[in-house]
Design brief:
Layout: H1 2-11, H2 16-22, E1 26-31, E2 36-38, E3 46-52, E4 55-60, E5 66-72, E6 77-78, H3 81-86, E7 93-96, E8 100-106, H4 107-116, H5 118-144, H6 147-157, H7 159-164, H8 167-174, H9 178-190
Antiparallel strand pairs: 1-8, 2-7, 3-6, 3-8, 4-5, 4-7
């Protein structure tokens, strides 16, 4: 839990006592490769800090195909934010692409922390602000960068995903076919 504490301290000043007092609200959860953390169509009840492992966020598009929107890696938070905040059915599914160890908190327990601690209110606000920035950057990249640039960004920012995720999941994340992804990889390898 020390890494989780450092993660939170990097966001807002939380004392060791404030952290320890809140730990009864958090639970450890281990999920296996292929297990679902958030199911599309069901309300998202938890937010998770990823202690170990990688998860994939996807939705079903208008052609009934899975479209990957995000890869969630160690030392980051994940949830279906809109569903979690509004406690409404999720439009997303979050699935483990390898065995994962999570530290989770329920919506109700998080609300209790917000009610009794200003530092948790600050953490919640700063995490929400950061998540908004990440989502806006992703939307900008999605519409302005070529698939090759997106692949290079993934290579530079989340290189472990390229070894762990299925080729079709990476291709859907980039918005290209498997064939186009193979061509992009070949072009990059030839220029090294």
């Amino acid at each position: 839990m020390e890494i989780f504490k450092l993660f939170l301290k990097a966001i807002a000043p939380i004392t060791d006592q404030e952290f320890d007092d809140a730990m009864s609200c958090f639970k450890k959860l281990s999920i296996k490769k292929g297990d679902i953390f958030v199911q599309q169509g069901a309300p998202c009840r938890h937010i998770a800090y990823i202690r170990k492992g990688t998860l994939r966020t996807f939705y079903i598009n208008e052609k009934a195909e899975e479209t990957t929107s995000c890869f969630c890696t160690e030392n980051h938070l994940t949830t279906s934010y809109k569903s979690f905040i509004l406690q409404q059915p999720s439009h997303l599914t979050i699935q483990a692409i390898e065995n994962c160890e999570l530290c989770i908190i329920s919506y109700d327990d998080l609300q209790k922390l917000y009610a009794k601690s200003m530092v948790w209110q600050t953490l919640g606000r700063m995490i929400a602000e950061n998540e908004y920035i990440v989502m806006e950057q992703y939307a900008s990249v999605l519409n302005s960068e070529t698939a090759k640039k997106k692949y290079l960004r993934l290579f530079n920012e989340q290189p472990s995903v390229l070894q762990k995720a299925k080729v079709e999941d990476i291709a859907s994340y980039l918005g290209v076919s498997r064939r186009t992804l193979s061509r992009i990889r070949k072009e990059i390898a030839e220029h090294k």
